[in-house]
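Researcher: We're teaching a course module on how sequence relates to structure. For the next exercise, students receive a sequence and then see the predicted structure as tokens, so they can try to spot secondary structure elements on their own. Here is the exercise chain.
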Amino acid sequence: MKKSLVLIKEIEKGILSIEINNAEKRNALSDSLKIELENIALDLRDNTDIQIVILSGSDGNFSSGNDIKEKNAFGLGLDLAEARIHNRLGLRMCNAWTNIPQISIASIEGACIGGGVSLALSCDFRYCSKDSYFYAPEVDLGIPYAWGTLPKLLSIVGPVKAKLIGLACKKLFSEEILEWGLCEHVSDDPFNNAIHFAKELIKRPKIPQQMVKESINRLVGKDEISIYEQDQVLLTTREK
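Model: And here is the predicted structure for the students to work with:
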């Protein structure tokens, strides 16, 4: 039987848990996993029963990011038209998660790397464990940081700190993640803290919450720029 890469469970009425289940690769985001997470988010758009979604990773890590060891990583081996589509899978996944109507909370333990940071920042709130860390090594790998992450970083931490993360590849540990405003809380048990926060949120009227979220997303969204970033990634990998 094929192992499910995503585990879905309704914690209680209106609160859904979605767990990335690729622990052998520290929850690396394979192409199939990106597509599955995108489809889950798209399905949630029409789900009026769920008000809060908690996204987490299995076995002590949130996500080690894009699976660069996978066949056709960065579109290599594909013709240009196919490569452009392939190279946008991560961006499509993050955009889908950014735009779900539900309030989303990322519960983050251990590694949150590259595309994992992108996915975490696509959620509305983040709760971290004491051993968690954020790290975006893309520039060290010879590619720009993409997946629509830079506008989100800029809106949260400002231009200088966004550059420290995105171009200087600065690794942030839990205390600094909290200090920089990239998460709301650090504890030994971020998942249970996320559940507690979800139970507080769900007491409030759902539709006004969703309207506020949509308004804020419109004010900070720069999706049109993110498409160009993906082509930059494609160009830098093809030049090697």
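Model: If you want an answer key for the exercise: The first strand starts at residue 6 and ends at 12. The chain has a mean pLDDT of 92.
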